[in-house]
Amino acid sequence: MRYPVLLVSIASLAASAMAQVEWTPHAGNPVMAVSIDPNALEPYAPSVVVHKGKYHMYYTRKSAASKETLGHAVSDDGVAWSLVDSVCLGLSTTSTRFDSKKLGQASLISEGDTLKMWYWGGGPHGGNIGMAWSLDGKDWTRVDGPATDMSVYDLAMDGNGSPAIACPNVIKDGSGYKMWYSRVKVVGSSISYVIQHASSPDGVAWTKVAGPGAGGAVVETGSADKFDGAMAFFSSVVKDGSTYRMWYCGADTAGDLMTGYATSTDGIAWTKVPGTLPKGALFAGATATVMKSGDGFKMWYMGEVGFNYATSGLPVRIAGRAHPLVSGAVAGGRRFDTRGKRIGTAQRRYPGLSFPRS
């Protein structure tokens, strides 16, 4: 199989900072086509976790009635996926709960024999964040949280007067938990997003941790000429030794979505690392989820006709042999997948994803 211009790294540099920046899309993308869930409209925001030896993906899906819920698929290797349930967590039947109108954008942790999930929900008082748990990844128990409408983190705790908070991303850090989430900003007749931060001793009782940005943001939008000039949201954070690494979705002023990268020593003060794509973007994909694997990283993200997969700092199998590629194909200043097909602009336009306003 021929590959266009590719950046190559020797094995000793696979875990270096550059290996975190350069990614190789899987040759067989999409690894999970939209057709696997024929009743889903506009699936996005995959979240992948390894639990009891299997990869579990939870993705946000819309029904014909525009009700967002969560679908569930499983895989033995993170590449070949099978649908388990098109609606693994549906809307609450309790009208006063935060997740009675819409829910999605999950973040998961496998802890012992339990899967823990944090997710966005829309209810009678705007968009808030809640929690659920499961032993098998199929049957979920909602946690009645201490915040508004039984959420675990609400608009009042964020404290910015925002109409919605969304896109939670939670990691276990030591004995406690850390969350990065997206806050809606209303700018005239448009909306914008920035990334905020909170911490918790148990995953249920949360406290906002103010960052250096306006309103306590830890990652703000970039300048108008950057890939994140309009929005910064959908973070995916991995703690790698003493370094926090964040991949996040940015929208530019034209509405195109790309993935960017930042690092931090404390999870609060972040330094953006410019990518090689136009406007400083890292990768031509959106709403990504990343996990560490050995000396490298694995990423699942939204593509044209389903969810795509990429690796960084990991060997890629080509015709039965390992090849130490650590970058996606670059041609003419744009990032292509390994089939030479550009990720479509339409799939990177944020209006089609119905990001929460309230």
Commentary on this structure:
- The structure is a single chain.
- Strands 1, 2, 19, 20 and 21 form a five-stranded antiparallel beta sheet that branches. The protein has a four-stranded antiparallel beta sheet with strand order 3-4-5-6, with no helix packed on it.
- The protein is 3% helix and 47% strand.
- By secondary structure, it is mostly beta strands.
- The protein is globular, with a radius of gyration of 19 Å.
- It has helices spanning 17-21, 155-158; strands spanning 24-25, 32-33, 41-51, 54-62, 68-75, 81-89, 102-111, 114-123, 126-134, 141-142, 165-173, 176-187, 190-200, 207-208, 231-240, 243-251, 257-264, 270-272, 286-293, 296-302, 306-312, 316-318, 321-323, 329-331, 334-336.
- Residues 1-19 and 316-354 have low confidence and may be disordered.
- The protein has one domain (11-353): Glycosyl hydrolase domain, family 43 (Tachylectin-2, Chain A), CATH 2.115.10.
CATH superfamily: Glycosyl hydrolase domain, family 43
Overall SS class: mainly beta
**CATH domain topology:** Tachylectin-2, Chain A
Q: What value does the average pLDDT take?
A: 84
Low-confidence stretches: 1-19, 316-354
Our measurement of the CA-to-CA distance between the termini, rounded to an integer number of angstroms, reads 47 Å
| Radius of gyration over C-alpha positions, nearest whole angstrom | 19 Å
Order of SSEs: HEEEEEEEEEEHEEEEEEEEEEEEEEE
How many structural domains does the protein architecture include? 1
- The assigned CATH architecture is 5 Propeller
CATH class label: Mainly Beta
The portion of residues forming beta strands comes to over 45%
- The number of strands is 25
Shape: globular
